[in-house]
C-alpha cells in the first residue's frame, strides 16, 4: 500500500479536514492496520532531506491544531531571566504531536458506532511565537531574513494594509513609524503570543491558566486575559459567523499533506523557512540570508476581524430578489426561491456556497453532497467549457465573479498571464476560530432600534515563510487590488475583495463642462486644475451608470469586515526555542565586543592604536581562561557626521568577526577626516550598536571612543541643536541597550573632551551607568590596552552575576516592592564574603563638582531626549580636569580579583532591573 492510500484509509473519518498528514505505513503492519482499524502504528514522516522535521516544527503550522476552542495569550516580557527559566519548562506541541492527535481522533471515530458522534479525545496543544520587538527584548538581534518583519510592526502598516477603523487597545503600539518601522521602539509593543488550542472550552481555559501560571510574573498578559476563539455550536460547526464553511481550501505541502483533487500544491518552503520554496533561501541575490536558527520556523500573522453579521444578512436579503440580474445566462428553470436567491448572491461574494461547494461547479444552486466530498469540493477551475460564446483559453467570470473572496485570495488558472509557480508562492496556511456569541432575535430587534451589534468575528491567523510573498501579497496584491486577478494584457478594473477589501479613501472633485462620450471600460485621462492653480492628471477606466438607472446588485459594496488589529510574529522551531530558553541561564561563555569609533579629523591616532592593540587584547582575554579565541567576536562602527557638516558618511558598520586579522584590516582602511561642527553622529553610532547582530549567549560590550559630544545635548555651535536629524534619541537607545544586556563604556579622549566642550562629560557619565558601564579617561593613548582589558573583564563578571541573580532581584522588586537600595544591601550581605570578581580601578582625573554630579543624575534618570530633560541641565563653571591632567598624563590603573563591593552590587541590581523592564 502506498503512502497516499494508507493516509486516506487512516484518516477517512476526518474528511472535513483539508490538511491530512501524508504518512508511511509500517512495513510489517500496514496490511493488518488497515484491516483492523488499528492505525496507531506510525510516527514516521516521508523520509527526505528536503522536508521539514516534524519534531522540530511547532504544531499549528503545517497541519493546524484540531480544536473546538483556542485562546491567544498575548504578552509582554517583564524579566528575561525568569522568562527563559519558565520557557525551559514550556513544552510546545510539535507537528508530529498533531499528527498523533489526528490519528487518535481518527481511531476514535473508526471505532465508534456513529463516527459523527464519537467520544471526544481530550487534548491540549501549545505554541509560542515572538514579535520582532520581543525578539530584540530577549537579545535575539540577528535579522531573520524577512525584510518586513525585521523592520516593521503591524501598527506601522495600519494604513498600508487599509485599516481605517480603530484597533483593539492591545494591538495599538504607542509610537508607530509608518516610514522607517518601529521594531526597535519597545514602548507598548507586544512581545509574543502563546496559542492554546483544545478539544473543549473547559480544557482550553484550564490549559491557558496553566501556561499563564507557568510564566508567572515574568510576563504581563496583554489586556489582562486571553483572546478567546470558540467553534460555533451545531448546526453551525465549522462555519464562520456569516455562515460559510471555513477552511475548505488549504495549500497542500508537497511530501507532507495528502493531495486531494484540485488542491493547490506548494513546496514546503513557501510555508516553512529553510526549504525549497522559501523565497529568501531560493534567491541567490538576497542581501540578507536566513540564519541557521530560522530553519523549521515560520511567520505568523494574527488579525482580529470583526464581522457585521446583521447588516450582511440585510444586504443579502435586499439583493437576493434581483437574482436574474446576476445569474449566469440571466435565468434558470425552475426559478430560484427566496432562500436560493439570497444564497446565490452571498455565494457570489465568497466564491463558495455556505456549505463549501464551489460556485464554479455549482453556479445556480448549492450542492451539499459535493461540499462533503473532499475529492470534489476543490476539483475545479474557472474555465467555462459549456458556453460556445466564452473562450476556454481566457479567464472568465461567467460563473464566479473575479471579485469573489476565494477567487481573489486563492487564485488559480490565470495562465497565460500569471505563472502557476507565482500563485503557489503566495499561498498561506490559514487557521483560527470565530469569537463572540451567536446572533439572537433580540439582538436583531435591538439593532433595528438603533443599538450597535455585539462584537463577533474571526480570530484569523496564517502562516508563511515570507510576509510580503504571503500575507501582504494576499491583502494588498490580491484582496485590496481593484485590478486583480490579471485576466488580460490590458488592466481591467474589477473591484476589491468584498470580504477582506476596504473602502477606498475618495478625494472629492467636481468636473465642470461638457464631457466626451464614454462607455464602461473605456480608458479615461483627465487633466484637472486645483484651487491653488496646480494641475494634475487622473487616469483610469470608466464605469458608467446611465442617468436614472439602478446600480448593479451589490453596488456599492459596503464591506462588512473590519480589522481590529493584529501583529506579525516569528514562530521559532523547537530547537531554536530551546536554545533561547537556555541562552542566559548559565554564565555566558562567549564575548561580543563592538568598538564605536569617532572617525573625524582628530581621531587618527586612536584608530591606529585600537588596530595595534587588538591582537594583544585578544591574547589577554584568552589568557584568563574564560574564553577561547573562537568565543571572541569583534565588531566595528565608525562615525562622522550628517550633511552639511560632513558629506562622506554618517556611520560605517563592519559586522562581527572572530578573525582578528580581518578586523585589523578594516581598522587599517579607516581614515579620520571631516567632522564639521564640534558635535558628531554619536547618536547614529549608538543606533548601529543596538542593531549590531549580537549573539544571545554572549556577554555584550560596546566601547565608544570619542573626543566630542553628540548633537542635541546643549553644546554651543551645534549644527543640529534639536538633536539627531534621523531622530536617533541617545537616551532611548542607551535605555534599550540596558534592556538588551549591552554594556556601554565610554573612553573619553582627554584633555580635548573636557577642555573644548562644556556638556559631554556629565552626559557620558550619566548614560553609561544605565547599562552598568564605565566612563573612563583616555588621556594617554598608550593606556588603551589596559582600559580595554580591565573594563571588559569586570563587565563579564558583573554580567554573570546579573544572569545568576536576575530573577530573584526582579521578584523582590515586583512582589515585595523592595527598593533597589534595599535589594542591593541584602544581596551584598550574601555575596560580600563569598564572591570575588575582576575589579578595574582608575585614578579619578576629574575635579569634584556638585553641579556636574546633579547633571549626571539627570542624564541617568532620563527616559528620552526632550526639553523636559535638557531644561534640568545647568551650566558648570570651572575646570573639569584636575590641574595635573590638563595637559595630558597617565592616571594610575589596576585590575585584580577581589571581593565584590557594594557599588558593584548596586550596579548588578541596576542591570537586573533594566533588563526586566
TrEMBL record:
This is VWFA domain-containing protein. CDD domains: vWFA. NCBIfam families: Dyp_perox_fam (TIGR01413). The keyword Zinc does not apply. SMART domains: VWA. InterPro entries: Dimeric_a/b-barrel (IPR011008), DyP_N (IPR049509), Dyp_peroxidase (IPR006314), Thr-specific_kinase-like (IPR052969), VWF_A (IPR002035), vWFA_dom_sf (IPR036465). Residues 592-792 form the VWFA domain. Gene3D superfamilies: von Willebrand factor, type A domain. PROSITE patterns: DYP_PEROXIDASE (PS51404), VWFA (PS50234). Its cofactor is heme b. It comes from Suillus luteus UH-Slu-Lm8-n1.
